Task: structure prediction
Amino acid sequence: MFEGFAHVWTPVALASRLGRAPVRVTVAGEPVVLFRTAGGAPGALIDRCPHRGVALSLGRVTADGCLECPFHGWRFAASGVNTHAPLNPDAKLDLLSATALPVRRIGEMIWIYTAPGEAAPVEPVVPLGLDGAGLSRIYVERDWACHWTRAMENMLDSPHLPFVHRRTIGRTLRRRMTTHSRMEISWEDTDFGGRATAILDDKGPGAVLEYFRPNIMALIIPVPGRHLRIHAVVTPAQAGRTRLTVVGSRDFARLGLLDPVFGWMNGRIADEDQAVVESSGPEEVPPPGAEPSLATDRATLQFRTYYHHHLRASAA
Ligand code: FES
Ligand SMILES: [Fe+2]
Result:
C-alpha cells in the first residue's frame, strides 16, 4: 500500500469537504474514504469494504458517526472496528474490521498517515502558515497530470521564477537579473526537511523557502514585521495525477474582501507552472546525477536525494 509514499503524514483534503456524506480521495494510488464521526472528528479508512470490496464511500454516515457500507450495511467506526453486521446476530465482529488510517484535522485540512494502524509513530510537522492563529488563509486547488515528484520539485526550484513567473512572483528577479547575474542557493538541513535561500548577485536578503518532507513547500515572502506566505501542498493521487493545494497565509489585510484577490494571484502562479511541469520527462524525477545539473539546482537535488534514498522504496 502507498508504494513510494508510505509512512508519512500528508494533507489529503480540505476539511470543508467533510459534510454529512463520506468523501473518497485517492492518495498515492490507494482509495481512502474520509468521514465525520459523531463528535465531528474525522475518520479515515481504506475505501474498500472487507466483506466484498465495495467502496465504503458509496455508503452513509450513521447517526452514531459510523460509516455504513452500501452493500450489506456493515458498519465501521473510525477505528475500523465493525460495530454491526446486519442479519447476522452471531457474527464475530472483531474479525470483520475495515482498515483504518491515522487521521487529523489540522487547521482547515485533513491529514492522514500513509500506513494502516491504530497509531502513527510521530505527529505531523505542520508549517506555521497552515495552522497558526491570527492568520487568514485562502486555498486554491488544482489537479495536474504529472507525477507528484515533478510538482514538488518545481516548488523548490528558484531559478525558474524569472522565466515561468516573469509576470508574477518572478517579476522583480527578472528585472534585476542581467546576463552576468549569479544566483546563490544555500541549503540548510532542518529537522522537518530543509530551508533554501536564493540570493541574486550577493544582494540579500533573498527569498527563503522551506521544505517540509515529504510534500509541502512554504515560500516566505519578505514583508517587514508581517507574515505572508504561499504554501504548496503536493498530494500524490493516482498514477500520473497530482492534487496541488496552494495555501496563502497572511496576518494583515484580513478582511475577507481581499481573499479573492490573493486567491486569484495564487491560482495564476500555479497555472503558470502547469504546462512546464506536465511536460517534464521522465514522469518521475530521476535520481541526482542522472541529468546535468547546476549550482542553482541545489534545493531540487536535495529533494531528489531524499526521494530516491528514502521514500521511493517505501510501502505499507
Ligand atoms: S460489501 Fe460491505 S457489507 Fe458487504
Ligand atoms: Fe513555479
Remarks:
- The chain has two domains: 9-113, 128-311.
- DSSP finds six helices and 17 strands in the chain.
- The longest strand covers residues 203-212.
- The two ends are 5 Å apart (CA to CA).
